[in-house]
Amino acid sequence: MQDKNTSGAAGRFVHALAEGVAIFGGLCLVAASILTGISIVGAQVYKPLPGEIELVEILCGLAVFAFLPFCQLKKGHVGVDLLINALGSGAIRWTQLIGDIIITVLLALIAWRHWLGTVDKFHNGEFTPILFVPLWWGYAASMVLLVVAVIVGVWCIFSDIRDIRRGAQIEIPLGVH
């Protein structure tokens, strides 16, 4: 995989996009932690923060979807390569390509089904029980993050193909291969 500085404008855009949504995911987790802390302290002093659990659920769900593009970009998904390393860098390149294709297809499938769920939640008019936050808001925000994950996955596939054609040196993330 080429360094983001040498992969052109598209590569820099995809890297910035993945990094941006990962930062957003981190901020979601920070916000969820703060809300939980406020609720715990509030429960000890007076009463817990009403609806805190609903917001924490939404924020944690968004964080999961926000980390997917960065994980895909950095080849951070789980891989089991007991014999591939012995076959050389060519085999590693091809298994990375095959893995990226599989993950991107799965992300696209999840995005499609998630879209149907978003539309369903929108038409049903479901709300959270305490704060009355429309459920489709969280689904819609997650849908945007899934689209980003699919875009990053497609870029990774093209990047893998480019690297195979060039015979580029393989970057093996620590702990993955």
Automatic annotation (TrEMBL):
<keyword id="KW-1133">Transmembrane helix</keyword>
<comment type="subunit">
    <text>The complex comprises the extracytoplasmic solute receptor protein and the two transmembrane proteins.</text>
</comment>
<keyword id="KW-0997">Cell inner membrane</keyword>
<comment type="similarity">
    <text>Belongs to the TRAP transporter small permease family.</text>
</comment>
<feature type="transmembrane region" description="Helical">
    <location>
        <begin position="94"/>
        <end position="116"/>
    </location>
</feature>
<keyword id="KW-0812">Transmembrane</keyword>
<dbReference type="Pfam" id="PF04290">
    <property type="entry name" value="DctQ"/>
</dbReference>
<keyword id="KW-0813">Transport</keyword>
<dbReference type="InterPro" id="IPR055348">
    <property type="entry name" value="DctQ"/>
</dbReference>
<comment type="function">
    <text>Part of the tripartite ATP-independent periplasmic (TRAP) transport system.</text>
</comment>
<keyword id="KW-1003">Cell membrane</keyword>
<feature type="transmembrane region" description="Helical">
    <location>
        <begin position="21"/>
        <end position="43"/>
    </location>
</feature>
<feature type="transmembrane region" description="Helical">
    <location>
        <begin position="55"/>
        <end position="73"/>
    </location>
</feature>
<keyword id="KW-0472">Membrane</keyword>
<protein>
    <recommendedName>
        <fullName>TRAP transporter small permease protein</fullName>
    </recommendedName>
</protein>
<feature type="transmembrane region" description="Helical">
    <location>
        <begin position="136"/>
        <end position="158"/>
    </location>
</feature>
<feature type="domain" description="Tripartite ATP-independent periplasmic transporters DctQ component">
    <location>
        <begin position="34"/>
        <end position="157"/>
    </location>
</feature>
